[in-house]
Amino acid sequence: xxxxxxxxxxxxxxxxxxxxxxxxxxxxxxxxxxxxxxxxxxxxxxxxxxxxxxxxxxxxxxxxxxxxxxxxxxxxxxxxxxxxxxxxxxxxxxxxxxxxxxxxxxxxxxxxxxxxxxxxxxxxxxxxxxxxxxxxxxxxxxxxxxxxxxxxxxxxxxxxxxxxxxxxxxxxxxxxxxxxxxxxxxxxxxxxxxxxxxxxxxxxxxxxxxxxxxxxxxxxxxxxxxxxxxxxxxxxxxx
Length: 239
Hints:
By secondary structure, this protein is α/β, with parallel strands linked by helices. It contains 10 helices and 7 strands. It is 41% helix and 21% strand. Strands 3-2-1-4-5-7-6 form a 7-stranded mixed beta sheet, with helices on both faces. The chain is globular, with a radius of gyration of 17 Å.
């Protein structure tokens, strides 16, 4: 293992030790993403990259006969092995992963904003997809209403500037829908579907403090009507 790889693994583990994905509105968001995956999934063999605490994995474990989970954090991998004993759990960087089989569905939930070279990763993933298979990637949206408001209020200089939460999560970039689709096309994919969910006018902390679950559920769905302004965006693509 190179020094740079070791440093990246340490970085991922430090993020895992103070993960926010199970806090506030994030579980609702991730489970909503799981529902979108359910609509577009194919076949019986699934690979999930970056499952973290496994909130999307819960749905995948119910829907696929074979499930492989790859994450760079030893902490997350231990938790995933305990929760999903029938899954194959691999602790490695995505860039070092070499599968022995191909997959019908590949899920990249909140992955591409983290990695050093998303196009290079997508090029690798394309070779892991079986004939007739599909990949789905979801990322935060730079044009989310709450980011637009932050620019107007002077809290961010631009919509795609990394904010405090981005830095905490270890994000390296913030996509918009066109940029996410462009990275797939550049890596040799054919984009079949794009969309968004969670119309988010305020921060996660404000949502957690003031919103009911019914409000949160409604605004998750409302984001599908306005994908360009939704907090989360996704691409479905074929190799």
